[in-house]
Amino acid sequence: MRTALVLLFLLALAAMPGALLPQRLTAGDKVGKYFEESPNLAPVLDRLGLFNVFGSIWFSAIYVLLFISLVGCLIPRTAEYAKQMRAKPVLTPRNLARLPHHAKSTVDSSPEDVVAAARERLRGWRTDVRVEDDGSHTISAEKGFLREAGNLVFHFALMAMLVAIAFGKMFGFEGQVIIHAGDAQGFCNSGIYAYDSFRPGLRVDGTELQPFCVRVNDFEATFLRNGQADSFHANVSYQEAADLEAGTWQQAGLQVNSPLRLAGGTVYLLGHGYSPRFTVTFPDGQKRTEATQWQTMNTVTLLSQGATKFDPPGVTDPEKRRTGQLAVTGLFAPTAAFEGTLMTSVFPDLRDPAVAVDVMRGDLGNESGKGQSIFEIDKSMVDGGRLKKVARQNLRIGEEIALDDGTKIRFDGVGRWVGVQVGYDPGRLGVLIAGVLVLLGLGASLSIKRRRVWLRATPAPEGAESARTVVEVGGLARTDQAGYGEEFTTLAADLLRPGKER
Questions:
Q1: CA distances to 85, 301, 456 from 126, in Å
Q2: What long-range pairs does 54-61 form, CB within 8 A, spacing at least 24?
Q3: Neighbours of 177 (CB within 10 A)
Q4: Domain 92-144+449-495 carries which CATH code?
Q5: Which contacts qualify for 231-238: CB closer than 8 Å, 24 or more apart?
Q6: What is the per-residue pLDDT across 448-483, written as a single tens digit (0 to 9) for each?
Q7: pTM, whole model, 2 decimals?
Q8: End-to-end Cα, the chain, rounded Å
């Protein structure tokens, strides 16, 4: 057990870097920023595995050693406990007066009557009656064996919790996706490609996910007068496996801390934001409308930034397509306020929406072979002169910008997007059951007292009055808990009651 406690301390100590340093699985962008800010220290920490603490070999080694230590501790203790449960209570000590708790009396009852009354009083205790060579009758009684049972339940449940957590990490996953309110397509749990970010378990490759679909019909956010969020509610439709076959949709509400529980995972509401909608009318009269989610910069006023990108229609030549791409970038304010031409947002709800945009034309870098954020343009294209700013203007809904080549860009309106997280943890139920057993076992081991009591009924010496018996009672607590003295006093008074004391 000492080894297990040391390993448990080491496990807690080893987990500290995971809380203090960004981790690749949960904050890969912050890890990259850490490398930029600390180019000398970051590689050293990376070689030590401190940016992936919970997946490192040394953390797994401590985890496995703790598990082995618990097994090596619990098996012998369980065998010893089973042996003690089958054994009879220990013999009555020869000198009961040496015990911490002791009482003595002479009663007008025979030893047999004293023992019979004592057995009735000690109902619920493990007892054993013996007759000694001098004719004395003794009772050995023990109580509190469930204390060790609670201790064993606590440690076995702790071990089961470790197994359940490991099982969940191996076969579970966690992914995040943005769903546009009112989008009939929604989101389907059909593979990794359907997610914006996906963190699979060690045994999950994304090819055998439980199918289900979710779409957001509408989203409602309410705010207090000071702009503080009051409530968020999304009306969603969903399909599980049977619904997908039948082509039916089920209705549900999705709120913060009130997830949608499906067979293939649990859908949580994480956040929301706005999607400005722009319509581009090209010189040949063709139109393209896009509503791309913009990233929230200020969680109080929901001032957002983003980039909505367009390809020229009907252009098949790659070079011409790359030189004619457009990006509408800038800021969006749900309730706009201006200081000259500078725009900000003063309230998070859609009271007076406006955008402050820069229109970029040229090569967006979509065909460069490297990924780029949907919230911004590739700055290397701007630095290289392949993407240039051709207009800047503040727009309210219905207003438009006219470019030098006749292209018109109109701010049509605003949609809402909802960020959801889909989590699947097959070990969750096991962790819950193990957690309950941990609490029950810990409560039993802390509240139950292990104690023993012995009684010796000795016939009075020859020549004394008949039916007189000397009764001695001794007690011993097997733990350091207080309170047994009071219990022993009450118990001894009952055990010495069969006859009148003299």
A1: 9, 70, 16
A2: 54/15, 54/18, 54/23, 54/25, 55/25, 58/14, 59/11, 59/14, 59/15
A3: 21
A4: 3.30.310
A5: 231/255, 232/256, 232/269, 232/272, 234/181, 234/269, 234/418, 236/260, 236/267, 237/186, 238/212, 238/213, 238/214, 238/262, 238/267
A6: 888 899 999 998 776 555 558 899 999 988 765 556
A7: 0.70
A8: 52
User: Which pair of structure tokens corresponds to residue 306?
Assistant: 């983003």
**Mapping DSSP to helix (H, G, I), strand (E, B) and coil, where does residue 458 land?**
strand
Angle at 268 between CA 265 and CA 270, to 5 degrees: 145
- The count of C-alpha atoms lying within 13 angstroms of the C-alpha of 116, restricted to the half-sphere facing its C-beta, is 7
Helix (H) or strand (E) holding 373: none
∠ CA 418-419-425, rounded to 5°: 135
CA distances from 284 to 120, 281, 314, 323 (A): 104, 8, 10, 17
**Dist. CA 403–CA 328, nearest whole Å:** 12
Computed from CA positions of residues 46, 49, 51, 55, in that sequence, does the dihedral angle turn out positive or negative?
positive
Cα separation of 69 and 256, whole Å? 41
- Hey, where are the domains in the chain? 2-82, 92-144+449-495, 173-424
- Strands of the sheet containing 295-296, edge to edge, are 295-296, 304-310, 325-333, 354-362, 387-396
Q: State both tokens at 314.
A: 């009907």
Euclidean distance between CA atoms 215 and 474, whole angstroms: 73
Q: Each residue of 360-399: pLDDT tens digit?
A: 999 888 776 666 788 889 888 898 888 999 999 999 999 9
